[in-house]
Each structure stands twice: as structure tokens, then as C-alpha cells.
Amino acid sequence: MNYGKRVCLLYCTLVIAASFLLARLYNLSKPETNKSLQVLDGQYTGKIEVCSRSGFVYDRNGYLLSHNHAGRIALVNPAECTDAVSCAEKLSETALVASCSDIYERIIRGVPFTVSLGGEKTLSVPDGVTFFDSYEENNSLAKHFLGYNNADGRGVSGLRGAYDGFLNGELYSKVAARFDTNAKRASLSSFEIDTQKYLSRDGIVTTIDKDLQSFTDGLSEQIPSGAVVVSDVNTGEILAMSSFPDYDADKIGELLDSDKGELLNRCTESFVPGSVFKMIVAASALEKDETLFDYKYTCVGEIAVGDDVFRCHNRSGHGEIDMSEAFSESCNTYFINLGSIIGLSEITDVMKELELDTVTEADFVKESRNFFPEAENERPGYLANISFGQGDLCLSPLDMVRVTSACATGCLPELSTVFGEIREGAFVFNERGQRKKIFCENTCKKMCAMMEKCVESGTGIGAKVQDVRVGGKTATAQTGRFDEYGVEYVHKWFCGVYPADKPRISICVLIDNVTGENMSPAVIFSQICLFLKEKGL
Fold first, then answer.
1. Long-range contacts (CB closer than 8 Å, 24 or more residues apart) made by 290-295
2. What is the set of domains in the chain, with CATH numbers?
3. Running DSSP on this structure, what letter comes out for residue 168?
4. For 152-190, how does the pLDDT look when each residue is reduced to its tens digit (9 = 90+)?
5. What are the tens digits of pLDDT across the range 455-466?
């Protein structure tokens, strides 16, 4: 082949190669075949998570107990913002952190984002913005009742622990948005928003009254250690239950070895009841023989029973008194005599009717334990101790609020803390058992009269409420433990009803393991009654 033919062949080859290359480049320039352009033109999907929450817990009036409303979350889609300046200005009016310039720059950048908003100001909705209510866990109210979640967001105590599968599993919800995006993560389309039940109101409806619960929680300065339980005398619905001291949900690990028992729910713990147990002894006597109401005994300040000597808190004695006076003045020797008349088996039989030989429950709330007297114990000193609430006997505030209701109405209510659940918008009511008749009408009338007298002129005078008739019983229960100065630790109780003439509310106040005389459960009871009066309950 001569030189000319070689040049011609090479030229033709180069032309064909160039033509193929140009054709290939043209083909690659088309969006449907160029993978890089596919990314830039929005062939990938972006996602942004907006907010999340666990299931709701409500009070009896429909107010949230478990969460606080924490403002709103604005979900911004720059691809749909028609006026970036106006949008940034409107959002910045209530933005918690972001400034107007920050929001504007993010809109111009084109990447979807969220802005946390505070306040209750109603904003006009800018183009490209969607608002969602934001919620945070309420860890400051009803701490022992609601309980707390662990670091993984699972409930481990209280209601949150008992209903963890429902609240933190079935009802856990979040808001997420999907959109077409390019390589720079800029949105190229409208959002597809998945609320995953976030807008649902499903949850648990409790018997708690939020305002009353907040009030009883606020009694911590007056109750360094103890409990308050408030219930409806007829239905047994718990309206409030507070335990002291409370705890910081963010410092649970530091409290596991604490000797103050911050994590204990003292509403369900058992304590020596002392003289509030005289309600049971008095009711037992009236049920056995109503004429014992007029039984008189002369208190000289002490009484010998077998080899034991028992003293009244009034060391000089109360003189001759009947049951009403003995109840009002909390005379130990009178009730020791009364106990010997009716016998231990009569008292324990009534206790069994009051279901004090079993664990008291209020739905998921259960007392830890109790100590029931030995009915067959024939030692005189044993019965004497039981007759004024000492010795082999321990009851919880949950027990005593129920006992007080029974003494006032004659019927033992089934305690409850949960009305039911809201599932898929429908309310599912928890079935309740019937109240059990325990005491006759005459017994209840006399019990209410004695409780009222205790407040009007007896040891419970601190419980008085202006223009309201209330009644109750005091107790200062011995523990047998002493401080370094030899002063005995005691449990102070006040159990009573509001109002006394037509009881609606039963209240138990306990201050445990104290030595100071200035702490008065009766005074705290009066404060709770005053709150109930002002609230119109």
C-alpha cells in the first residue's frame, strides 16, 4: 500500500471514531441516560424526620398529664416557598433559636429543614410551610404515679412502666416527610408527609384531677417524707396521689442507693397506723353492739394488761369518757378496754371485710405489703396493742383512704386510677366491680359524727375549714426507733372526709419518720379541703 492510501485510511478511521464519540456524547447528554444528571434532576428521594412522641396520658377532664405542649415545629420546603423573605420574617417572629437571616439563608440553600417555634401566637401559613404541635414528656407532675422512662425511652415504673407496650410501643408516633432531591439535598418537589398516628389523640384516661394533683404535689415543703391520697368515697376513683420526697427523672442512677427512698411510692408502702386504726375498732364495736356507743370508761392515764402497762398520750388521764369523746381525744386506754370487750376476732373479721388481709390495688397501682394481726393470738397485750393501732399491724395510705370511705358511707369502694383507653378514637372503658356493703347506716352516722367532733373540739382541730363541716382522725404512731438525741421517730397521720355531713371525698395524709412537733397532717388536710372548696368539688 502506497503512502497516499495509508493517509486516506487513517483519515477515514479518525472521522469514524470522532463521529462515534460525538454520538456517544450526545446520548450521554440526555437526562434519561445520564446518571449524574439523574441525581441533579431529582431522581433520588430525601427524607426528614420532624417530631415524635409517646402515647398520651390524660386526667379525668381530658387534660394532658404525660406531656407538655412545647410550641410548634415548622416544616419548611424551600421548593414551594414563593417569597423567601416574607417566609423567613413570619417564622422568626416566634422562632426559639433561629434568626430571620438564618431562616432566609436555609430557604435559599434549598435544603428542607425544621424550625422550633414557641409562644401561642397564631401565624399565617407561608407557602411551603407546614406546622405541627410539639410535645415534651412531663416529668414534673405526679412523678410516682406516672413513673419514668429509661434512656431507651421505655417505661420502667409507675403508669409508664405498666403501660409501656401501649404508650411507648403501639402509640409511639412521629412525623416524617419524603421528597425528591438532587445531589445537593435540595428539594425538587412537594412533600409526602407521613404522620404515623402523630395527630391521633389515642392514649390512657386516668381518674386523676390535674389541678388537684398539682396542688398535692406542691405540699413537698410541708411533707419531707410521706404521702397524700385523695379519692371519691363512692366510686373509689383516685383524684390525686403524691409521694414525698420526689425525684429528678434525669438523675435516677444517683438515687438507686439513696437512703431517703426518693423512688419509693409511699402511697403504697405500709406503715404502723397508730390511732387512725381506731376507726376500724370503733366501727367493729358499733357493728357488734350499737349500745357500745354510750359505753363509758374512766381513763387515769394508764392501764395494766397482763404483765404490760399501756399509757395514754394524756398521762394525767381523760377521766370518764364515752366512745365519741374517746375517739375525739384519741384515748388509748378507752380503746384498749373497748378492744377487750369485742375481742380480737371481731376486729380481724371486720378487717377481712375491708379486704385488709389482701393486697390493695387501684388498677396498676398496688401496695407493696401489709401486716395482718394473728386472730388466734390470745395474749392480752397483743390485743391491747392492736386496739390502738400499734404492734403487729401495718397499713398503707392506699388502705386507709379506702377504710375512711367505708366508715363514712358503709360501702367499700373498688379503688381505681384508670378510666380506660382511647384506641383509634374510640373510648374503651375499664369494667368496675360493685361496691361492697360493710357497715350499717347507723354505724356510718355515728362514725361521721365522731370524725366531725374530732375536728371541732378534739385532736384534729387543725383540720378545721371555714364554713365547711369536715371530719377525720389523727394518729401519732410509734416506730420504736430513735434519733441520736433519744427522740422517737413517729408516723403522723390524718384520715378524713370532706364534707362530714355528706361525704364526697376521702383524704389520707401521712408524714412518716419524723420527730418534729410542727408538722401537722391535720393542717395539710384542711389546705386540701380548702382547695376542693374553691375548685367546687
1. 290/442, 290/443, 290/446, 292/323, 292/338, 292/341, 292/342, 293/322, 293/323, 293/324, 293/446, 294/322, 294/323, 295/322, 295/323, 295/338, 295/341
2. 44-206 (3.90.1310), 210-535 (3.40.710.10)
3. I
4. 889 999 999 999 999 999 999 999 999 998 877 888 888
5. 999 999 999 999
